[in-house]
Amino acid sequence: MHLKLKWVTVVLGFLSISGYSQSKNTIIPKTYVAAKTTTPIVIDGDESDVSWNKVEWTALFEDIENNVKPKYATKVKMLWDETNFYILAKIDEPHVWANLKQRDTIIFYNNDFEVFIDPDSDTFNYYELEINALNTAWDLFLSKPYRENDNVVLNDWNIPGLKSAVKINGTLNNPNDTDQGWVLEMAIPWASYKTSYFDKNVPVDKFWRVNFSRVNWQHDIKNGSYERKKDANGKFLPEYNWVWSPMGVINMHEPEKWGYVYFSSKEGKDNFTIPQDEKVRWELYNLYRFQKEYFEKHKVWAKSIADLTKETIRIEDKILKPVLENHTAGYNISVKSPFSNQTFLIRQDGKIIVY
Question: E strands along 217-269, which residues?
Answer without folding.
Answer: 219-222, 225-228, 240-243, 259-264
